[in-house]
Design brief:
Largest sheet: 9 strands, parallel
Structural class: alpha/beta
Bound molecules: N-(iminomethyl)-L-glutamic acid, fe (iii) ion
Radius of gyration: 21 Å
Number of strands: 17
Helix content: 25-40%
């Protein structure tokens, strides 16, 4: 109780599009009743307070803004090492792609991730989950993709499962074995595609270690033809599809995602009007990652306004990873979405909560503050929701709750 604004995001359990993205369902001075980890009632204080039993614990928000926990629908949660050395190289003028072509980039993180034991990866996962939770993120999608060999990928997926089980952060796992062609298959992409299709994917699906399959679809890595084979195999095994598409080249990756019924197409910095039309027709959601544009020093952000105008259920996410986007802060991503992609604070908040939940098929459980949903919510250090992206680069929430329990953050 005692919220300046209870930002509910109440509404239909589907992606919010167009003008709906600005409708936040704000209850001024609102209150919320939580029972057994679930939201029992939401509304004006005068209506909710009488429903509470006399021994109910009262949380005083102190006149602050309360929102649903952030849902970060694109992260590379677990990896060994970091790439601060490459950050310095980019500051000195090299591009992300040049560093990658010289054996750095994803392949550098593959070397350090392979060198880490499963227990070490679990410890790294625990550290990173703390960063997300302290920033107000209560659910993440988490990709493998720094193993690029069967046992190595399974090791990362098991570490992701451990992160979800051992910490209050809900983790949805995605298999990204097609993140890069590993060193031992250099010049033999076809051989690696065979391994993905015939060995890795069946094991991942058989052991139920991932709910989605993703791929880095780029002409120099996995071109559309190869990507189609991998994604089609994943789909046949019952995995949902996501796709790193049009990050550096507009090469038909978003159209491929649409063609195969992918849940999301992610990045889309280079997407053209035809890509947007295809995603709309297929009902796929764009996941925009402005942190990765900012951190590689590019100026070219995804055309968010055109996507909102076209009626796409836009999502924003951190793309947390050691190369192109070393941030776990959804508030920072909201800020970039507003200043660089000209989304309004309300659109950015919708993209960071309910629309993101829809992209993970979790729209019935999380993403808004409505009766029956899980009580994952954040008390922000703000009295107006627009302050969330306005104060950028370090503001932390006052309190974070998952399943009705306050985290020690
Ligand atoms: O989403 N470009 C593909 N994957 C990541 C980067 C991963 C990395 O650089 O380690 C991305 O930007
Ligand atoms: Fe990514």
């Amino acid at each position: 109780m005692n919220c300046s604004q209870l930002v509910t995001l109440a509404g239909p359990a589907r992606p919010r599009i167009g003008a709906e993205m600005r409708e936040l369902g704000i209850v001024p001075g609102g209150a919320m009743l939580v029972r057994s980890g679930l939201i029992a009632a939401v509304g004006p204080r005068s209506e909710v307070e009488p429903l509470a039993s006399s021994d109910a614990e009262v949380v005083d928000a102190g006149g602050r803004v309360v929102t649903p926990g952030f849902v970060d629908a694109h992260t590379h949660l677990i990896f060994g090492g970091n790439r601060a050395n490459e950050f310095e190289m980019r500051c000195e003028g090299m591009t992300y792609q040049q560093i990658s072509e010289q054996g750095g980039g994803i392949r550098a993180t593959v070397r350090s991730t392979r060198a880490a034991s499963e227990a070490e990866l679990v410890a790294i996962g625990r550290k990173h989950t703390g960063w997300f939770l302290r920033g107000g993120t209560t659910t993440v999608e988490a990709k493998s993709g720094y193993g690029l060999a069967t046992e190595e990928e399974l090791k990362i997926l098991r570490a992701i499962r451990a992160a979800g089980e051992e910490t209050p952060l809900r983790c949805v796992a995605t298999f990204l074995g097609a993140h890069e062609v590993p060193e031992e298959y250099r010049g033999n992409t076809g051989g690696y595609v065979d391994l993905l299709v015939n060995e890795m994917l069946p094991q991942v699906a058989g052991q139920k270690l991932a709910q989605y399959c993703d791929i880095f679809c780029e002409p120099k890595t996995f071109p559309v033809g190869e990507a189609r084979l991998i994604l089609a195999a994943a789909k046949a095994l019952g995995l949902g599809l996501r796709c790193h598409a049009d990050q550096f080249t507009c090469s038909g990756a978003a159209q491929l995602a649409a063609e195969l019924g992918a849940k999301t197409a992610d990045h889309l910095e280079q997407s053209d009007a035809a890509s947007i039309t295809a995603l709309k027709a297929a009902g796929a959601q764009p996941v925009l990652l402005p942190g990765s544009v900012y951190a590689i020093g590019s100026q070219r952000y995804a055309p968010a306004r055109a996507m909102i105008e076209a009626g796409l259920g836009v999502v924003i996410a951190t793309d947390f990873n050691p190369g192109s986007s070393p941030t776990a802060s959804m508030a920072m991503v909201m800020s970039l979405a507003c200043t660089q992609m000209k989304m309004t604070p309300a659109e950015a908040l919708t993209a960071a909560t309910i629309n993101a939940a829809c992209s993970l098929d979790l729209q019935h459980e999380i993403g808004s503050l409505e009766a029956g949903k899980v009580a994952d919510f954040v008390v922000h250090e703000a009295s107006d929701y627009r302050e969330i992206p306005y104060w950028f680069g370090g503001q932390r929430p006052k309190m974070v709750f998952t399943g009705g329990t306050r985290l020690p953050v």
